[in-house]
Specification:
Helix 8 (about 330-360) crosses helix 13 (about 530-560). It is built from 14 helices and 8 strands. It folds into 3 domains: about 1-30 and about 280-315; about 30-280, Alpha/Beta hydrolase fold, catalytic domain (Rossmann fold), CATH 3.40.50.1820; about 330-395 and about 430-580, no CATH class. The chain has an 8-stranded mixed beta sheet with strand order 1-2-4-3-5-6-7-8, sandwiched between helices. The protein is about 55% helix and about 10% strand. The protein has about 575 residues and is of the alpha/beta class.
């Protein structure tokens, strides 16, 4: 990267990040037509509840507006429901978007034993707004929930004041919850909309149809048809869309259907004549802003590193490795990589079951869900990759110098860690800056919760612990990619860079993508695989992180000629993603 080019690239990415933050902020407010206020209240039992209230900036409705509560799913936050929150607030609703316990900026912990407390937290948020906001209706409200949030929405049938309308999206369906959830029947919940993706990994279409049968009392039912009567509270409908569980949160068909349903059930069907059409949507701008902003932050780490490395004193730079290593045919090394990549997926599937068991048994290694899973994954894969490379490429592929057993060797290793840490300080500060600044506008990226909110200290400490735990994993992965994809040769032209980048992605992600295809293939053909598909859903997100870390391993490794440098940054990135995304337990 040329001397000035790196600065130009960084400037462009910084402009994209800043612009995305501004667009996220303005789209949150429907281009100035909404107000958004953050609240934290404390219940009588001492539990804190964090939520945001969205409503029209200019009150023109003429009477108190019904309140809508939007409830996100597990391992998400109130921002996950932006599509519904923004569009409903644009249509004369006062919308309460809550962070469930342990999620987002909530300082509380999440667990199966405290799940019902989360329902009372959400109800307290609704009642707080109804009592204190003169523009909000003090009795009429509706609940919309996705996944875990849909299950919570069903529990609102146990509250002193029941919702006048309920929307269940990708969860809360069926009668397989025993006494945990109130039964669905012809009158409860009132005015019920059931929505799901045809390819939802957790809710088969048959379960959605069974739920509609329970809700109508009919044996023959059809999706897309409205049963019952809104005035009597017996209206029922099932909506499908060609999407999966993850994208139900922003699917245009489900969003429009949910908005239309809540307008009909809470404003009255005649209100459709003088409100925005359900197809008039702007929420996608928030999604675009978030995606562009997060991608730009990730990509900007490379020019920041290149600039830092160029300005860093040579004597303080980490040692550069020798380019000599065991050679092997490209076909053979690709097979080795595909094997390791597929193994990483199998290990992740397996340890997720163990990790969740530890978390829900109160034996988690860290106080954030999925943290224990990935610590186990790091340990197993670090050992497995080392053994595979030594067996297939020779004992010199990954060797531990005997000198490390001596005080002198440990001192040298400590010095390398210090040099690497110093080199990465500007990169860390840049990442922290763009994770914190957007929060001043109320536009939070995934990493922002590390720096704001009641759970920030817990998440920050967890991120530090996880960084240390992930360091061996990414050190070994850097060596794996370097040896099998022969990245030491670097690149001289943009075309060579593109080719080498593609090769590295195939080496690192090829096997795990084959595994995902093996899981999703039968699923798409109608085979129900239960909890396995929940883990596969998590793996879809994990694959994106794997792709990013593979790119940073290549780009930074070639510049620094050091495996520890990309390993430290990748360990930190994965650590803050886990600590900032998953719930505190």
């Amino acid at each position: 990267m040329g001397h000035w080019v790196r600065y130009y690239v960084l400037l462009i990415l910084a402009i994209l990040i800043a612009s995305s933050s501004y667009l996220s902020w303005t789209s949150d407010q429907a281009m100035g037509k909404l107000t958004v206020q953050d609240f934290e209240i404390v219940r009588e039992n001492g539990r804190s509840v964090t939520f945001s209230v969205y409503k029209a900036r200019q009150f023109t409705y003429g009477k108190p507006m019904p309140v809508i509560l939007t409830v996100h799913g597990i391992s998400a936050s109130r921002e996950a429901m932006d599509a519904y929150t923004i569009e409903l607030a644009r249509r004369n609703f006062t919308v309460v978007a809550i962070d469930l316990p342990g999620h987002g900026v909530s300082a509380e912990t999440f667990g199966l034993d405290t799940f019902t407390e989360g329902v009372y937290d959400a109800y307290a948020a609704v009642r707080y707004v109804q009592v204190n906001d003169t523009q909000a209706d003090d009795t009429v409200y509706g609940v919309l929930g996705h996944s875990l949030g849909a299950g919570l929405a069903r529990l609102f049938q146990n509250m002193p004041v029941r919702p006048a309308s309920t929307v269940l999206i990708g969860g809360g369906m069926g009668q397989d919850f025993g006494a945990l959830l109130p039964a669905i029947n012809e009158t409860s919940p009132a005015n019920l909309l059931i929505a799901s993706g045809v390819y939802d990994e957790l809710i088969p279409p048959a379960v959605a149809y069974d739920t509609l049968r329970d809700a109508t009392g009919l044996s023959e039912v059809n999706a897309g048809h409205t049963y019952g009567n809104f005035t009597l509270g017996t209206a029922r409908k099932l909506v499908f869309s060609s999407t999966n569980h993850l994208f139900e949160m922003s699917d245009p068909t489900i969003v429009s259907s949910s908005v239309d349903w809540l307008v009909r059930s809470l404003h009255g069907e005649e209100a459709l004549n003088h409100t925005l059409d359900s197809g008039d949507r702007i929420y996608h701008l928030k999604g675009i802003a978030t995606t562009v902003g997060a991608t730009s932050v990730a990509l900007s780490l490379f020019p920041v590193f290149v600039i830092t490395y160029a300005l860093f004193p040579v004597r303080l730079r980490p040692s550069r490795y020798s380019s000599t290593h065991p050679q092997s045919g490209s076909g053979r090394t690709l097979l080795i990589s595909l094997l390791i990549s597929a193994l990483s997926g199998v290990v992740l599937l397996t340890v997720t079951l163990v990790g969740f068991g530890l978390d829900f048994a109160g034996l988690g290694l860290v106080p954030v869900s999925f943290g224990s899973t990935l610590i186990l994954y790091s340990v197993i894969m670090s050992v497995a990759v080392t053994l595979i490379l030594r067996k297939s490429l020779g004992s010199d592929a990954i060797s531990i110098p005997r000198s490390l057993a001596s005080p002198t060797g440990l001192k040298a290793l400590g010095l390398e860690l210090i040099k690497t840490g110093l080199l990465m300080v500007p990169v860390f500060l840049w990442l922290a800056l763009w994770s914190w600044l957007p929060s001043l506008l109320g536009a939070r990226f995934v990493l922002s919760v590390i720096f704001v909110g009641g759970g920030a200290s817990t998440r920050t400490l967890t991120a530090i612990v996880l960084t240390v735990a992930f360091l061996p994993l990414f050190f070994v992965e850097s060596r794996w990619i370097r040896l099998t994809a022969d990245t030491d040769r670097g690149w001289k032209t943009p075309l060579e860079l593109v080719k080498l980048t593609g090769l590295v992605l195939v080496h690192r992600m090829g096997g795990i993508l084959i595994l995902l295809a093996a899981l999703y293939g039968p699923f798409l053909l109608g085979v129900q695989m239960g909890f396995v598909m929940f883990i596969a859903l998590l793996m879809l997100v994990f694959v994106l992180v794997i792709g990013l870390t593979a790119l940073l391993t290549l780009w930074m490794g070639v510049i620094a000629r050091n495996d520890l440098v990309p390993a430290l940054l990748n360990a930190l990135l994965l650590a803050v993603v886990v600590a900032g995304t998953f719930q505190i337990i």
